[in-house]
Amino acid sequence: MQAMAFGGMKSRKRFAGCLDPFNHVLFTVGTSKAGAYFDLREGALLHSFSGIKTDNARLGPAAACLKFIEAVHKGHEGSRVVYDLLLQTLHLIEDMPGGVADVPVLFRAKMAFEQGYRPELTRCAGCQAEQGTFDNPRFFVEKGQVLCSRCTPGPEEGTGLAVSWGALRTLDFVMHQPPAMWTRLAVDPSVRDQAYRVVDRFLAYHLDVSMEDGNFRNI
Ligand SMILES: [Zn+2]
Predict the structure, then answer these.
(1) What's the pTM value of the predicted model, to 2 decimals?
(2) Pick the residue with more confidence: 205 or 129?
(3) 168 three-state secondary structure
(4) Are the C-beta atoms of residues 170 and 192 closer than 8 Å to each other?
């Protein structure tokens, strides 16, 4: 959102420390007489996320989450959900003990889930066999389904992604739990890599976005 702040340089009171990146603020915004632009009248700083700004290991992941929103969230529809999710995720990044490098991928997955992509991840969508009762589940991105080998369609419909139950359970946890709970996720690297591969595939398919050299690209 862009707005003019008249007298903003003169009045230290109205916008004190509000206009830094990562600040959570509450602004009073009006419309100019002719309706040509927004007029920023007052600002209150709600939270400065100083724990993120002063720690490069947290700043990078936080910036990655913001960049992703800029790439995929266009217009106003669904903004409330995205706002809540981003705010919760920034608090997680600021407060989480230990490394936060995995948070951006979990955030991207959660964004896709919140936008309505909610695949069934804990059973075979064909025969309804529960997780753990069969080996070698395959995930079909286009269908948003896990299938067992007996229910897997012929090669003309694709073979899906080979993925472990551990990776599927990780994604299911992220789908159903808010960011504050993600500190409970302890996944080993191979499971994490599989989960990441699934996330990349479903983002490319459902949100038309892919990551290239650390930047998101609409495809
Ligand atoms: Zn089945």
Answers:
(1) 0.86
(2) 129
(3) helix
(4) yes
